[in-house]
Amino acid sequence: EGEGGEEEEDVYDAQEVEEIERGDEEEEGLEGSVRQSKEEEEAKSPSKSPGKAVKVSRTEEEVKHMGCDQLAGWLEELDVSPEVIDMMQKARVTGEKVASASAEDLKEEFEMSSLQAKRIVLNIERPVPPPAPQQELDVD
Length: 140
What we know:
Blueprint: H1 14-44, E1 58-59, H2 60-64, H3 68-77, H4 82-90, H5 95-100, H6 103-110, H7 114-122, E2 124-125
Parallel strand pairs: 1-2
Helix pairs in contact: 3-4, 6-7
């Protein structure tokens, strides 16, 4: 309280006001740079970019011909955990082994979750056999 029982208002001189405003702008700038870095990160990781359809599935033949490093890159696109990818790289696993494995095999051998194993298997496009010939039924 000031003299005579009056409440004092906060009074800022021009320099203090400028510093406060600059601090607010810097905070907004930080938020903007965080937002920008998230956008940059999403641009680097196409499988996570919203609104952009990116083909992550591969044909069985493509997977069979993947080397260890190519396989690791593809598994990364599928959001397989880094620990599983590291384990597979250390074991020098190639696409041929993965292409012929079932989800259960992958889960057991590489200690991955069922979800990750199924995601891998479901993203390997297998050739579809032609439909069986239809027999005509005689309806009398």
